[in-house]
User: What shape does this take?
Amino acid sequence: MTASGASGNVIAKYLPVYFVLLGIAGLEVFLAYQSFSTTALLVILLALAVCGAALAVMYFMHLAQERRSLFLSLIPAVIFVLLMMNMIWSDSFRLLHMRPFPH
Amino acid sequence: MIVSESHQAMHAHGTALLEPAPYAIPSRKLTMWLFIISDAITFGALLFGYGYLRTASTDWPAPFKFNPSILNVMIMTLVLITSSLTMLGAVDSAKAGDKGKAGRFLWSTIFLGIVFAGLHIREWFGLIDDGVRLFQNPWGSPLFGATFFSITGLHLLHVVSGVVALAVIARGFSKGRLTAGHVETVGLYWHFVDLVWMFVVPLIYLLNLSR
Assistant: This one.
């Protein structure tokens, strides 16, 4: 196989991922114009964004081809830190209603 | 006794030199992965901060019309995802030793990155023309501009930095000073920039549509 043939193959190999990512982006725009509540839309859009990000990390960034220990060292740590940031939400809702927590 | 300790130290040093690379990947690639996860957490913190302010505000603006903003964002997304595909071609060609093709793919990626940055700046100027500033806008919560410009600005900074890094790597690789490993490492960074955009679009633009 020639070098140029190899790089032609890699484009063809990842075209399905490319089209799925474009499809997810298009679907997000379509759904954003439907009549969902803000919370429901947020959950749907975040779920689609996570799917797109997972495809990009596993295939474009080739994490699926690396040792599993690399995945286990990186991804759970990021998810854990991001989940810990969720602590702020109760305070943001308190500000919205301008009420202090009951004593 | 002294000779024995010295011998042990030398032996330990030699063992350290021969130690296999962590996760069986080059150190530069591991370093890029560590940078990427720290950067992902930085963007995560910014997006959480934006979510906090948006939730806590009763008058958060929703200024993004389909034309020009959302249309512009859709084109930007197409450009950025396509640039990830050309980056894959560049990495593969570089690994296969085809310098010419790797160079063409790298410069295509750079071109697409510049197009993305241009469209982004056009979007910014459109909002600035509408009266959006860092701490004021005509529609509602004054913090809209601060969060919008800081999050999209940090992403734009990453794109511009990536374009510069790609140009340096493309030039170095074509002259034989840099290796396919360098192309692969900068490719990881470029895909990460694409990944961040996948979260910026729904959270910043699509949740704030003008209906």
